[in-house]
Structure formats: C-alpha cells, structure tokens
Amino acid sequence: MALTTKHLLGIKDLTTEDIQLILSTATQFKEVLQRPVKKVPTLRDVTIVNLFYENSTRTRISFELAEKRLSADVVNFTVSNSSAAKGETLLDTVNNILSMKVDMVVMRHSASGAPHYLAKHINAAIINAGDGINEHPTQALLDAFSMKEKLGKLEGLKVAIIGDIMHSRVALSNIYLLKKMGAEVMVSGPPTLIPTYLKEAMDIQVEYNIDKALAWCDVANVLRIQLERQNQPLFSSLREYNLAYGITKNRLHKLSKEIVIMHPGPINRGVELDSDVADSPHSIILDQVENGVAVRMACLYLLTGRTQPTT
C-alpha cells in the first residue's frame, strides 16, 4: 500500500487511508526507536534538505533526527546565512539546491501556500513543516498518533482545540484530520481569536466558555497565543487571558472525569497552560515530542515510494 500523493502539503489533501497508513507505519518506526541501536539503513540512498525560513526548535530537530534515524543524507538550510538574505527568490534558492541532486525538501515558511507553490515547479517531494497560518500536517499526524496511543481510538473521541485558533496552522490541520477520522471537534477561546466561518464551513462546535469545553471533551489540545502573528491586541492582557481561558489545576479538579492534555509547543507557561498541568499525569506533551520522530520517519519513508519498512 502506498500514499496517494507525491507531496505532504496538508491534511486536506490526504485520504483516510493515507492517514491510517502513516499512523500504522509510525507504529513500526516507534518500535525501532525503542531499540539500543535506533538507526535503520532504509533511506541511505536519499538526500533531504531542511529548508526553514522561520524559526523552529521542535519541528526542525524532530525532522533532522527522523532523517538521520533513516540513514538519509541531510542538508540544513539557514536563511540568514544564505543568498536568500541577499534577495534570491524562493524558487531560485530551491532550484540551486536541487541541482545538487536533492531528493526531498522539508520546508517551513511564513507565507501560506509556499510549499504548494514549490510543488508546482520542482520534481522533488515536498513536506510542509508549517506554512504561515495555513497547515502543519505532521503536527496533526503526531497529535493523532499520540491520542490513539493513549486512548486506543480516534473515532468518536471528543477533542477540544483551545486557544488562538485564528492564527494557528496546527488547529486547521488537526480539524481536518480529526473530522476525517471520525472524531468530534470543538474549538474554544476568546471570540476575537476564533474565525467566524469555522462553525458553518467546517461543521465543528464553537464554545467561548472554557469550563464547558473542558467538561465536554476527552482531549484538550491547548494552543499558545501567537503574538507574533497578531497585528493588533485581540484581548486585554496575558494575565486576564490566563484567568479566563488558561488550563489550571483548579479547572481540572472541578471536572467529573479525567481528560488528556496536549500542546504542540512551545508552551507559554502561566498563560494558556499552568506548569502544574503541563507536568501532570494528565499531560502527554512529552509523548507528542517522542512520537513526532516516529511519525516523521513514516512520512519521509512513505513519500520515497517505499511500502514496507526495512526495520
């Protein structure tokens, strides 16, 4: 069985079967990562460039580690030290890289649609590692993998995505994936941070009362406030945001059930999530980080056209 797409540009482009294949393949690669020797020779004939036009810690390290665990040759591109800083266009930059016989490009860019633009002009496989406020497909896949690992299923789960929905590519990719896999989705946060079109266009629930959202859900996927993407103040202060929408131990104690807490990182502790919640048994945040390597190994592997991992 193989993916139906040459590129991984967004969850929107994947079929349910594609998602299931990636998650099942990630399960096999996670077993590899538990071994004393965590490396396999699967992609030793493949060269991958990590093309990051935006700052990143977790995603970039996770991709680089996944590539090295698969024995691929890895090239890391830093914009500040490149000709892009001198005005070279994105397409020229990538074409110059590809002339060095690169097989795959992992790309993060501040412009929504940048990976899609590249995919129309070059032959190498493109993985979207986050484009503007559009999508972040591998984050949604690792979130789904982590939910399924913890709770045993995705179908029928009630997942609340809480926080800055308007500026979050993670939120959009998660909504697409969870809906495709049969989960129920609710978004919650200040009205100024939730696009008005979501309820109608994507058939999801919108709840502005955080306590009602927590009482409804099985999983709370908490997002940070992306101040760097906001052109004007959209709420009064970070302190008041924490009081109204922050996930605190007191809020969780009021619930009649236990829920799973997730966060794609980086966490703004004391704003959207208190430390005693982030570090509690409710949290699977570090499991998400660990699972990210296995999921990205699966994506890299499947996009090269392989169908059965050599593990």
Name some characteristics of this structure.
311 residues; alpha/beta; Rossmann fold; five-stranded parallel sheet; four-stranded parallel sheet; 12 helices; 9 strands
Explain this structure to me?
- This protein has about 300 residues and is an alpha/beta fold.
- It folds into two domains: about 10-135 and about 290-305, Aspartate/ornithine carbamoyltransferase (Rossmann fold), CATH 3.40.50; about 135-285, 3-Layer(aba) Sandwich (Rossmann fold).
- Helix content is about 40%, strand content about 15%.
- The chain is built from twelve helices and nine strands.
- The strands form two sheets. The protein has a five-stranded parallel sheet. A four-stranded parallel sheet has the order 2-1-3-4.
- α2 links the parallel β1 and β2 (about 75-80).
- α2 (about 60-70) packs across α12 and α5 crosses α6 (about 170-180).
- The model has no long low-confidence stretch (mean pLDDT about 90).
Determine the mean pLDDT.
Answer: 91
CATH architecture type of the largest domain = 3-Layer(aba) Sandwich
Task: Write the CATH fold name of the largest domain.
Answer: Rossmann fold
Structural class by helix and strand composition: alpha/beta
Give the overall form.
globular
